[in-house]
Structures are given as C-alpha cells and as structure tokens.
C-alpha cells in the first residue's frame, strides 16, 4: 500500500512540467552576467522570468529580487531595511512568526540594539490591525506580520493592516506570504516587502523571491557584484530563477481548482476528526484550508512515529524547528500544549481514501497507546 503524505505545508512535490523544464535549463550552464551570446541569452530568460512574476503579482519587475527561498527573503527584508534606516530602532511583529523572521528580529535586538514588540494572536488566532496600531511608536520602523501562520493556519488580513498603517503612519510593512501564494488571493497594494518560496508551490528547493516596493531602500546582506540590483551578490542561480516564473504561473492558474479540492479534503478530515472524542482541534474554522492542527492524548513524538510506521507522514510543528527542543511559539501563544499537538496539511493530489486511512490509523494508535505512556 502506498504511503500517504500529509505534510505539504512543509514542502511539496515538484510539478512534473516544472521539473522537466528545469532539467533542460541545467544544460545551459552559462553565467547570465557574461557578455557573449550564450550568457546574454540566459540573462534574457532570467529577466523575462522576473517580468512574468511581477506581472502575475501586479507589481513592477524591478521590485522582484530572486533569493534562495523565503528564509533568505525574510532576512533580507528585515535586516536590510533596519541597516538602511538606523535611526529608528523599534519593530513590531507577532510572537508566532516563522523562525526565519523571529530569529532575524532577535538578532537585531541582541546584536544591534533594536527593541522588538511581539504581539500575541487573539481568540481567533489572528493579529488585529487595532493591536498593531496601538503598539506603534514615534520610532517604529517596521511592522512584520505573516499572512498565514504555518502551524495553525490562521489568516491575517495583510491588506487591512497595510492600509491602516499607510493611512496615518510612516512605517514600513513586511508580510511573510510563504503559505498563501497559490492558495489565497494576494493583494500587495499596501505591502512594502513580501517573502515567497518556490518549494511550497510545487517548485524546486533553494528558490524564492522578495517583493520590495520601488522606493524602499534596503542594504544588501550578501555583498558582491551587480546581481539583483546590487542587493544580493554572487553568481545568479539562473535555472532556478528562470523556472520560478512557470512555478508561480501554474500555482496561480490553477489556484481556484486546487484550493477547492483542498477545501473538500480539509472539511471531510475535520468532520471525521471531530467525531473522535479524544481529539481536540487547535486550528480555527476560518483559517486556511491547507492546515489542520489538533491534539490527542498521545505524545506528539509517539504519534508521529506511530503514524510513520503505518506509512503516513505528518509533523508535530514547523519543520524548520523539528529537530530542536524548543516549543512551538504558535501554540504557546494560544495556550496550547505542543507536547500533544499534530499538524497535518493537504494538497490537491491527496485523496479522500487517504484521509479515511489516516483517520482509521489515528483511532487505532490512540486506542493502543493512550494508557501505555509514562
């Protein structure tokens, strides 16, 4: 019997069309900054990719900066902006941001003397614009709030937040959009900086980009040559950058159909989970449909391993912290004990049969292990 993958928030299978095109691009090994014909051709393809991504997001091509993924994009946005604006030393963010945001902010606090205000989500799991506006100060440089939380699936209204910030205050707004691209409508009209990753939307790993609004000044984190408008030195990963446009286009072209399928799977799974007396749902019903977070009487580590033995792949928290002893800030912010929490996530290639197999396996494991834990 085939294995079941319920961890698509962590990463996704590469789209067959994307993979085939990427393999072909690998044969063109030329440096896009070279001046001979072959290099110029690769550079043209890379810039066409930039233009197509910009067009898909309704922004300018010079506002797209290729990176190695969302973690680098987050760091470039936060540190780059801070280093370019050293007179303002206050930043507002949320306690449940991805580790690449949280740890970047902690470095700014620890090493460079910034003061960080971490807001907690409300009873619906979101960070409200009212809480953000209340936390603003005269020396606030930046607000950084993720669009979709990667552990509980809560959706923050980045359009409303951005619009409120622009109405009365001179403060920059950054949004980590890693989990929303290709799933939810995306409006960057009131966002100054936004981070994206390819491998969350069936692209290749080590690929992503930062949207930086024209006129927003940041300092490079990787000093080098002229690449990426002199904001990211080093020879461009041209094949990854070129194929990224196709990855984004496919994700957006099929966004509605894919999300409808995911929603149906989510609702079926949630309905079945709610029938199990010893399961507690941690996610919110108005959150994104790709994620369900829930708790059982079984320790998370035991549950993950037991499901793995049955051929079912799930996670207990963000994969970026899966090998650390740290607790989940997302669940801690909501007063949920992460020792017993499980996160499952869906994609359009999951099936109802897989969900039913998962539910049956979950019931069996709870019955087997509930009274055997020390």
What report would you give on this structure?
- The mean pLDDT is 94.
- This protein has helices at residues 16-25, 37-57, 70-84, 99-112, 129-135, 158-168, 227-230, 238-253, 255-273, 300-309, 329-333, 352-369; strands spanning 4-5, 64-67, 90-94, 115-119, 140-144, 172-176, 193-197, 208-212, 280-281, 291-295, 312-313, 341-345.
- The protein contains twelve helices and twelve strands.
- Helices cover 40% and strands 13% of the residues.
- Strand 3 (90-94), helix 4 (99-112) and strand 4 form a beta-alpha-beta unit.
- Helix 1 runs antiparallel to helix 8 (238-253) and helix 2 packs parallel to helix 8 (238-253).
- Strands 2-8-7-6-5-3-4 form a seven-stranded mixed sheet, with helices on both faces. A three-stranded antiparallel sheet has the order 9-10-12.
- It has two domains: 4-12 and 254-369, Aspartate Aminotransferase, domain 1, CATH 3.90.1150; 16-253, Aspartate Aminotransferase, domain 2.
- By secondary structure, it is of the alpha/beta class.
Number of helices: 12
* Coarse shape: globular
Structural class: alpha/beta
Radius of gyration: 21 Å
Terminal Cα separation, in Å? 32 Å
CATH class of the largest domain: Alpha Beta
Report the biggest beta sheet as strand number plus sense, adding barrel if it closes. Answer: 7 strands, mixed
Helix content: 40-55%
Overall tally of structural domains:
2
Secondary-structure element series: EHHEHEHEHEHEEEHHHEEHEHEH
Order of strands, widest sheet? 2-8-7-6-5-3-4
Q: Please report the total strand number as a whole number.
A: 12
Instruction: Report the portion of residues in β strands.
Output: 5-15%
Would you identify the CATH architecture of the largest domain? Answer: 3-Layer(aba) Sandwich
- What are the low-pLDDT stretches, counting only 5+ consecutive residues below 50? none
Summed over residues and divided by their number, the pLDDT gives a mean of: 94
CATH superfamily of the largest domain: Type I PLP-dependent aspartate aminotransferase-like (Major domain)
Which topology of the largest domain does CATH recognise? Aspartate Aminotransferase, domain 2
């Amino acid at each position: 019997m085939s294995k079941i993958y319920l961890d698509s928030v962590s990463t996704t299978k590469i789209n067959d069309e994307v993979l085939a095109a990427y393999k072909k691009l690998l044969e063109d090994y030329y440096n896009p900054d070279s001046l001979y014909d072959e290099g110029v051709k690769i550079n043209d393809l890379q810039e066409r990719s930039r233009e197509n991504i910009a067009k898909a997001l309704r922004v300018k091509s010079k506002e797209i900066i290729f990176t190695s993924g969302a973690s680098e994009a987050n760091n470039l946005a936060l540190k780059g902006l801070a280093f370019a604006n050293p007179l303002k030393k206050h930043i507002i963010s949320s306690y449940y941001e991805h580790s690449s945001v949280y740890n970047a902010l902690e470095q700014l606090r620890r090493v460079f003397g910034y003061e960080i205000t971490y807001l907690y989500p409300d009873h619906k799991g979101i960070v409200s614009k009212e809480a953000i506006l209340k936390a603003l100060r005269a020396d606030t440089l930046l607000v950084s709030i993720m669009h979709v939380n990667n552990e509980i699936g809560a959706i923050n209204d980045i359009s409303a937040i951005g619009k409120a910030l622009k109405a009365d205050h001179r403060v920059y707004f950054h949004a980590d959009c890693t989990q929303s691209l290709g799933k939810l409508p995306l409006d960057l009209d009131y966002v100054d900086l936004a981070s994206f990753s390819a491998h969350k939307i069936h692209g290749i790993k080590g690929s992503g980009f930062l949207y930086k609004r024209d006129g927003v000044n940041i300092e490079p984190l990787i000093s080098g040559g002229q690449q990426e408008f002199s904001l990211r030195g080093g020879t461009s990963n041209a094949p990854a950058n070129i194929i990224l446009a196709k990855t984004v286009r496919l994700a957006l072209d099929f966004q509605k159909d894919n999300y409808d399928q995911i929603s149906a799977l989510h609702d079926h799974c949630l309905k079945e989970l709610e029938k199990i007396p010893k399961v507690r749902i941690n996610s919110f019903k108005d959150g994104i449909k790709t994620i369900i977070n829930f708790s059982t009487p079984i320790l998370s580590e035991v549950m993950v391993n037991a499901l793995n033995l049955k051929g079912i792949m799930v996670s207990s928290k963000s994969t970026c912290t899966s090998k650390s002893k740290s607790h989940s800030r997302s669940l801690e912010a909501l007063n949920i004990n992460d020792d017993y929490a499980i996160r499952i996530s869906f994609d359009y290639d999951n099936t109802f049969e897989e969900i039913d197999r998962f539910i049956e396996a979950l019931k069996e494991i709870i019955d087997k292990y509930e009274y055997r834990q020390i």
